[in-house]
Amino acid sequence: MHKTAPEPRSTSARWNDTELVEAASSDLLSLLTRLKTSPDGLSEAEASERRTRIGLNEIAAERPPRWYVQLLLAFHTPFTYLLMTLAAISLGTDDLPATVVISVMVVLSGLLRFWQEYRSCLAAERLRSLVRTTATVSRPDAQSHLPEDALTALDSKTPLLTARQLEVPIRDLVPGDVILLSAGDLVPGDVCLLNAKDLFVSQAALTGESVPVEKSDASPTEIGRLLDTYCSPLDLPNLCFMGTTVVSGTAKAVVVTTGSRTFLGSLAGHIVGKRAETAFDRGVRGVSWLLIRFMLVMVPIVFLLNGLTKGDWTEAFLFGVAIAVGLTPEMLPMIVTANLARGAVSMSRRKVIVKKLPAIQNLGAMDVLCTDKTGTLTQDKVALIMHLDLEGNECEEVLEYAYLNSYFQTGLKNLLDRAVLEHEDLTETRELTKRFIKSDEVPFDFQRRRMSVVVHEVFKGRDLLICKGAVEELLTICNEARVGGQVIPLTDAVRDEVMRLCTSMNEDGLRVIAVAVKQVSSQPNKQYGVGDENELTLIGFIAFLDPPKESAAPALAALARHGVTVKILTGDNELVARKVCRDVGLVSPRTLLGRHIDAMDDVELEQAAEGTTLFAKLNPSQKARIITALKQRGHTVGFLGDGINDAPALREADAGISVDTGADIAKESADIILLEKSLMVLEEGVLLGRQTYGNIIKYIKMAASSNFGNVFSVLVASVWLPFLPMLAIHLLIQNLLYDISQTGIPFDKMDEEYLQKPRKWQVNDLGRFMLCIGPISSIFDITTFCVMYFVFQAKTLEMQSLFQSGWFVEGLLSQTLIIHMIRTSKVPFFQSNASLPLTALTLCVMAIGIAVPFTPLGAAVEMVPLPLAYFPWLVATLICYWLLTQIVKSWYIHRFGMWL
User: Fold this and answer.
1) Would you give the distance in Å from CA 577 to the centre of its chain?
2) 579 and 509 in contact (C-beta within 8 Å)?
3) What is the pLDDT of residues 781-820, one digit of tens each?
4) Active-site residue numbers?
5) How many CA atoms lie within 13 A of 176 on its CB side?
6) Predicted TM-score of the model (pTM)
């Protein structure tokens, strides 16, 4: 059973497959009696009463929250709460500059995130596919009670009363309504067929089967036989399901279940409620708490050391608050959101709508892409790909006869007929219509599973009966076969060879139709029937497949080169899926079927999923279980699907991807919507996601390591100096200028080598990075202390402004320089250069930092101009800092195998 959200006015909101199976197994009289309806349907009064009692025919759906809720959620992150706390403390201590800076960062990041996601949600809503919103319902003119001869009336396919046909909104349908279906209709509920003619239904949205399935008003005996062979309710011929589409034919059906009690409704329940945590969520949370723990340890130490050594506890407290602000990368929410938003804008230019910003980074971290087969790897259309004689050779004659059969039939042409008529090799074959005249036809029916046309060949003056249909059925009416240009008796040996060839094509995932012909005597105005379909000559086969897209194989190869493993999750059968996998380059994929998955516990499935490429005959819950199993193995998993049956897996994946032509439920469940169903677009998204992550992590690492170095330097200075090495206001100005320089990071680029592999959050590496790289800046901070203390004699309280000005400039320039050191694993300025916006901002900030002590602003905050003799020392310090950082960087990469 599938869990769903509760239906407000219904006693049950579960898909009741038992109820449907019982309906399918019943004779028509029992079915109508159980549903308390008639062959002409319910009266308006009865339908209204049931609608009040049962509820509307609507499925669970999750709409975007209202704008003000989205606005509040944009600020719902651990780091935002930390910044808000620091802002409140700063306000309480009358530190207005710190309050303003922190508050601006929080507000800007929250508003940017809200605006991007809100715009994306609006765009996604506009993309909701337009479906038919009404159904044709039968209503009796008078109150209808089920008469004793109802079964006879149904068998004759004539109404008992004078019924009228009405178009009513789908949401108003109730169990017991009798509806009429025709080509193009959306099935509005789970229904049982009362009668049907040439009915083909596309169930791809529910099952993944690319070829439409035949539906008919099968007898209870036939249904019982199918159920004995473990047939799924979805495979029963007399049941149609909400959300499927009528491809051809007509039918009359009675509604059995509606709303959340339908199979579609059960799937819709999976998209309501809280989503599974994604890799991005886990990564940001881990980084946030690491920085918070670090701050909670270091700030009290700084506070106690300054209080004990200086004796001024108020000043020590204010300095501790300033250190807390300095330690905190307050630009983190802003930088993360700006990077993600810029990625979303870039993807929109590639016809991709990003509903949830974190999905950008999840794409970059993705190392496993699970994708549906139909319409993703394939063209989502049936194509005729083979026309063979009985020896397996290409045969134009077989194609010509198949074409004549499809062209001259007057019934509704199904997808197979259309594929024959659209075949690319028929440029000359279409001339046949000028050489043949139709005489008669024997229509298709589900018992015979074949159809015939009789044509007169003008130039040869002969009549031919051309029949095509299921191989097994045609073999029963053939007594000859054409082999090697000769007509021979259809012996058991020939029959076995025919079946061997057919089985071989079936194993390649092909749907095979046989073609047979015989010459008949010319009899004007003769009416041909089923009895004339005998003693035919079997001449060959036509074979159909949903062919792969031309772009599928190159796209999969490109994803593989970038470290993304592709796994196929399909509801289609194993043979068809294997054929498609081979065609797109997934050679000899290990396969796991849905029924095997049900027999596994979670641990067994995790192990099996790791090494399996193809999962076939899956139901929706099995797809979601596979996604969960892969995530438990440490993978970041994306899922690409557009069907109703894909909704649970889209919801469970780190990055759920759908298309604008997909089912509404799929689009509601997805984080990303593609306007073009192309894996090549997805590859671009993967690279963009890695670049986005790279820019985020470079900010985190440079801010965290630089801040750690500053605090370490402050600890040394607090023990050594009789005054504070820098005033709180100096720290705030320095942080503000440093933050401005980092606003160019979202516009930076990443080295090509960095984009070749999936990139995931490494919280442990961040802590290690801080401890290894942070102290480098402290070394040169201490050398600056020594220069100011011993060379410029800034060792007394009277000279503290000079000391503080010197460290302010050196600290700001070294912090700014570290941006270029950390942004690449290569040698900066020689092997890898930053983008123009980032370079310009850093140069600008460095110039401003040097100038501040010489300005009225510097004087206002107790800074003094620096002597010219200071600047050679500054240049030497920065060069040595650059060299040592490069040496440590090379060691770090060699030791730990990574940098960003």
Assistant:
1) 20
2) yes
3) 999 999 999 999 998 888 999 999 999 999 999 989 889 9
4) 372
5) 23
6) 0.71
